[in-house]
């Protein structure tokens, strides 16, 4: 590089640094304003996530960006990232407490992953929370005595037995709820064990979400919904979307959404392990989509084997979904072995048609994710 180029670049980079510093000041200003919004929402008990406001604001900024010759997706990416930051920050203010005369909440299994998250959210909303973990049963009677709600969040394999054996003497008006990943059996067990209000939840997220904004919580009604309506409002204030489902419908969906998917991810990892694949090499030769896929597979193995074993083994019927997958795999492999390229293309087209408009929609969505994956590269 000659001296003139170096000087020109230095000058321009200095100007860019200045603009970036102005951006930092603007970001500070925006975060402060959003914090004020958080305080107002907290006082009024409004949900931290306002989908209409968010969509309208993004649409406006995209329009304005277009007029200014800025890619609309750029401002959308920036604003979405900023909004995520704001949702995380809203935890600092806490949340409005919807039910002020509940008594205490007892979280059975509260030292665990999901139990800790819900303990945090309930405490941030002003509830008094007591933990009853595996070595605390000698305190059960006194903890349950003034409990307004008992929330069960122990490993799936012991959930129903624990409910049936240990949660039969709760106060009459106490709400009995759970967070188990399957719903039919736990809801049934809760209804049998307790004559008061019963409700089943399945948070469709792991403990590392940061904020509940935009996360989904499935609710399966058990008994006396009017007694726990406040809890649904409380969860909505945390930003989550409540999806109502019959326990059986939920569990049917989980056979594909969780059991089949986790099992195939497990086999994918098992295969890489048995093949003694070199992960460094895989990464070196990865397209962004493969990098993302590897991250999703690796992520499973960073979590609890018991949790995933329980999810996969919980429902007999999941075996059908998994067996069907194996059959389809075998048939597709046979097609490959006999070199039937035309049939492969024909089946590909059939599946593409079946995906319909979702295929291009998923392509657009994944493109944005892949660009983020690429942004994160450091070398
Ligand atoms: N971890 C996750 O990503 C999600 C978990 N869930 C559900 O949440 C529930 C709990 O899962 P995690 O928090 O991941 O499990 P975890 O293993 O982290 O926590 C379970 C807790 O239960 C305690 N425990 C075990 N036996 C007990 C007993 N007899 N009495 C009292 N406490 C006992 C354990 O000491 C532990 O603190 C499960 O039903 C799971 O399906 C639901 C959605 C996501
Ligand atoms: O974080 C992940 O990878 C998860 O898949 C979390 C998870 C685990 C179990 C559930 O029932 C729901 C969500």
From TrEMBL:
Catalytic activity: chorismate = prephenate; prephenate + NAD(+) = 3-(4-hydroxyphenyl)pyruvate + CO2 + NADH
Lineage: superkingdom: Bacteria
SMART domains linked to this entry: CM_2
Domain Prephenate/arogenate dehydrogenase per the UniProt entry, residue ranges: 103-366
Chorismate mutase domain ranges (all copies): 3-94
Pathway given in the UniProt record: Metabolic intermediate biosynthesis; prephenate biosynthesis; prephenate from chorismate: step 1/1; Amino-acid biosynthesis; L-tyrosine biosynthesis; (4-hydroxyphenyl)pyruvate from prephenate (NAD(+) route): step 1/1
GO CC annotation, single: cytoplasm
Alphabetical keyword list: Amino-acid biosynthesis, Aromatic amino acid biosynthesis, Cytoplasm, Isomerase, Multifunctional enzyme, NAD, Oxidoreductase, Tyrosine biosynthesis
A Pfam family hit: CM_2
Localization (cell): Cytoplasm
Coiled-coil ranges from the UniProt annotation: none
GO molecular function, one term: NAD+ binding
Stretch forming the signal peptide: none
Keyword match Transferase: no
Designated name of the protein: T-protein
Organism the protein comes from: Shewanella morhuae
The encoding gene: tyrA
